[in-house]
Write a structure and sequence with these properties.
By secondary structure, the chain is an alpha/beta fold. The protein has two domains: 215 residues, 2-enoyl-CoA Hydratase, Chain A, domain 1, CATH 3.90.226.10; 196 residues, 2-enoyl-CoA Hydratase, Chain A, domain 1. Strands 10, 11, 12, 13, 14, 15, 16 and 17 form an eight-stranded mixed β-sheet that branches. It has a seven-stranded mixed β-sheet with strand order 1-2-3-4-5-7-9, sandwiched between helices. The longest helix has 23 residues.
């Protein structure tokens, strides 16, 4: 009897191992080879690269679809076309779902979606980040409405988790129709060049409906969304590059809004002089310099991690560390359009500010901005409401906010770049700062219009008045006299001051009016 019982147990264990092995083969050798031929890793290979070795724990491997329509009754879809579970990334727990294109094209049906719901719910309950690796042909048409409900449940959880846990999407294959909205609802979107695509309607439908011809890459490839739409934060070279950068991003982020920031040991010095900054500002105010050099000089080890590098280049957003602590940086970049604020730059900065504030990441702003981009295109594109987003985002943020004015800081753009009245805790200016309602030329043309017109030599008179205006206003001293600027510093002292301020503001608390939520001008 004991021997028979042992044999029965072994038989059941063997059956279990066989069933598990079949599921782990995904769509089979032929489909895996096809995936590799497209230059793509399989879902399981991606999971292995994303997580620390041996740490991934799969969830609901044996889930199967239950549809009997349109030939699905006989169709086997290993693991229901999506690998779900949790593991460690950089030693910290993260939940993930990776769609398996080798299994029925990674199509999303009822049970496929419920597997994703399960790990998303687990991530929310555990207060841990969630990563989605998208590679899917879209909704499983044979299942009908349940597949649409599946997307709806994902969107709902994306929204519930917004600002609560970090959510990251990697578009590593086709992502079309309703599938595109989950990435857009998450905090960060990575795309792999040449293999990742996102669009509401594909090229064939576009041609049939409006007669426009466009290929997949131009319509919704990584470069398109990284440079034109701004939907993509990171355009990566390969699956491996994408997964490495996701690991890098997570190293800057807390597990949730209730978790401490991840602090690393820093070999950099809190008293390090930034000598290069003393000479980085050009002698002529109409000449450009690269603000990224300023950011890197201040950061620990010169390292910065930059989202949206290819979009709205007149604005820089980046993560850095200062004495091992993550800091979010927002900065105008005079190298592109003189660092002006426009629709795209305002959106880029606002979204980043709100993310950092949601997850308690201090904000460091470098301001060198001549104003807002003028013209009908900007006005008709809604620069008023888009610019208001930036005002709202800074005003709403309660994390430590430090501002450094490096050069120009004019008019409404001065207000928008985290001025004292938008809640900056401390505003510093370099001696090269120019803080005024507008530039000297424009101001004199308005203030002294009559004097210039009546002068014997209008050109010389304008030059004289401009010099006078610059002497009075194109410096940081007038603002410092009024307490609008807290301190004027040598550029080389910038890092030292930032280190001490972040330490001083470490336990900053700020209580706002009780309400359900703000109504940001979207």
């Amino acid at each position: 009897m004991e021997k028979d019982q042992k044999g029965l147990t072994e038989e059941k264990l063997d059956m279990f191992e066989e069933n598990k092995a079949n599921l782990l083969t995904m769509g089979g050798t032929k489909m895996v080879r096809k995936q590799h031929d497209l230059g793509k890793l399989t879902a399981r290979e991606r999971i292995d690269l994303l997580f620390d070795p041996g740490s991934f724990q799969e969830v609901q491997l044996f889930v199967k679809h239950r549809s009997t329509l349109l030939g699905l009754a006989e169709k086997e879809i290993p693991a229901e076309g999506v690998i779900t579970g949790f593991g460690r990334i950089n030693g910290r727990t993260v939940f993930a779902a990776a769609q398996d294109f080798t299994s029925s094209g990674g199509s999303l049906g009822e049970m496929h979606a419920k597997k994703i719901w399960k790990v998303m719910d687990m991530a929310l309950s555990a207060r841990k980040p969630f990563v989605a690796l998208n590679d899917s042909g879209g909704a499983r048409i044979q299942e009908g409405v349940p597949s649409l409900e599946g997307y709806g449940g994902i969107f709902y959880r994306n929204t519930v988790g917004s600002g609560y846990i970090p959510q990251i999407t990697a578009v590593m294959g086709p992502t079309a129709g309703g599938a595109v909205y989950s990435p857009a609802l998450t905090d960060w979107v990575f795309m792999v060049k040449k293999s990742g695509f996102m669009y509401i309607t594909g090229p064939d439908v576009i041609k049939a409906v409006i007669g426009e011809e466009v290929n997949h890459d131009d319509l919704g490839g990584a470069n398109t969304h990284a440079t034109k739409s701004g939907v993509c934060h990171f355009a990566t070279e390969s699956d491996e590059d994408c997964l490495t950068k996701i690991r890098m991003l997570l190293s800057y982020l807390p597990d949730s809004c209730h978790s401490p920031l991840p602090i690393t040991s820093s070999t950099d010095s809190p008293d390090r002089d930034c000598d290069d900054l003393d000479t980085i500002i050009p002698d002529r105010t109409n000449r450009a310099y690269d603000m990224k050099r300023v950011i890197a000089t201040v950061a620990d080890g010169g390292v910065m991690f930059e989202p949206h590098e290819l979009w709205a280049k007149n604005m820089v957003v980046a993560f850095i560390r200062v004495m091992g602590r993550p800091v979010g940086v927002i900065a105008n970049n005079p190298r592109f359009n003189a660092g002006v604020l426009d629709v795209q730059a305002s959106d880029k900065a606002s979204r980043f500010i709100r993310f950092c504030d949601a997850f308690n990441i201090p904000l460091l702003t470098f301001s060198d901005v001549p104003g807002y981009m003028p013209g009908t295109h900007q006005e008709w594109s809604g620069i008023i409401s888009h610019g208001a987003k930036l005002l709202h985002a800074y005003s709403e943020a309660t994390v430590p906010k430090i501002t450094v004015v490096t050069r120009k800081d004019y008019g409404g753009a001065y207000i928008a770049m985290c001025s004292k009245q938008l809640g900056a805790d401390y505003v510093m200016a370099w001696p090269t700062a120019e803080i005024a309602v507008m530039g000297a030329e424009g101001a004199c043309n308005i203030i002294y219009r009559k004097e210039i017109a009546e002068a014997t030599d209008p050109v010389e008179k304008r030059k004289e008045l401009v010099r006078s205006y610059e002497g009075q206003f194109n410096n940081p001293y007038f603002a410092a006299n009024l307490g609008i600027i807290d301190e004027i510093i040598r550029p080389r002292d910038t890092r030292r001051r930032i280190v001490s301020l972040l330490e001083a503001l470490l336990n900053k608390t700020e209580v706002r009016l009780p309400k359900k939520h703000n109504n940001i001008p979207l």
